[in-house]
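User: My advisor, Dr. K., asked me to get a structural model of this assembly before our group meeting. I'm new to this, so sorry if the format is off. These are the inputs:
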Amino acid sequence: MATDDDRGLHSKAEEFLQVFKKGAEFTGELMRENERLRYRVLQLEEASRSTEGRTGASDESLRLTARIKELEQEKEEILGRIREVEEENEDFATRYVEIEQENNNLANLYIASYQLHSTLDFKEVLQIITEIVINLIGAEEFAIMLLDEKTNELQAVATEGLEREDVPSVKFGNGVIGEVAKSGESYFVEDVGSYEPDMAAPMVCIPLKIKEHVIGALVIYKLLQQKSKFAQVDYELFTLLAGHAATAIFSSRLYSDSERKLSTIQGFLDLLTR
Amino acid sequence: MSEYNVLIVEDSPTMRQLISFALKRLRGIRIVEANDGVDGLKKLSAEKFDLIFTDINMPIMDGLKLVSLVRNDAGYKETPIVVITTEGAQEDRERALALGANDYITKPIQPNRILDVAKGLLKIA
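Assistant: The format is fine. Below is the predicted structure of the whole assembly, which you can bring to the meeting.
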């Protein structure tokens, strides 16, 4: 027969079992929770690693963006430099053309000057002046007039495209030609294109002078068909002709005179010594 | 050493010098000058030329006669000839081209035109 002690023991055992069961359940719960937390920790660790990766990519992206900016800036600078170089090239090309033109002009002036002083023969000098006016200036009808100091008149000594008789003698100081000879200043019509031929009023009249002493004039009445106006070099050629042609004419006339006189004197000497 | 021999046949010393001056800007050019057609023929028979510039109006023998004689010479059938004319001398120019001239330049002479014509006919870049 069960005693009260036995019942008490049984009841305590029951309680203990209950407590043990609860403990076991609690332990099971703890273990599950532990498992869940470990899983969660793994998840978080994974997420953390992933986030770290994304942060790295973001850094690379920032670095690349910065590099792109740098390169774009460099590109802009290079494009700017190219534009500058292109502008410089254009300037050089323009300058080259100008220098080439200047070179041509200087060559023309040199040739004109060289030819004018290449002879002491009066007729040759006139021929050279004629060639220069045709070939370098481009005149078709013109005359070279010289001042006769005895009559004080300017008379044509050489013509091109005109008969010498067609060019009237002009009194020093009279009309356009006479006035040019008197003043020593060149004359040009304002508009070459609308010029109407007039023997008394040429298109161009250039005094031939040695320093301030005028010995004649170059008068132009018509330009070659393809020549519609004067270029800068033409004015320089006119200036050159004004001085050098005059000197060449003057020198050749002096030389011709001295040759003639020498020949006359030689003739007399020959007669005397026979 | 010269690569190209060029003959300038022109009675005007000014023109000869002008053409010569322009051509000397090309490298390897040797220039020989003649006073008229007869002088030109003499020079052509003495040596071989690669290009001939000739005026049309010249004493003794004019440029047209020279072009005709040069083109009838087997040794010069292919040699380029450039005639020098005035703008108004259209007939002379056409006749020269019909006789076998390759090109022409008109007075007043432009050095650049001489250079362009010479470069084109000598095939210089």
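One thing worth pointing out at the meeting: The first strand of chain A starts at residue 139 and ends at 148.

User: Perfect, thanks a lot.
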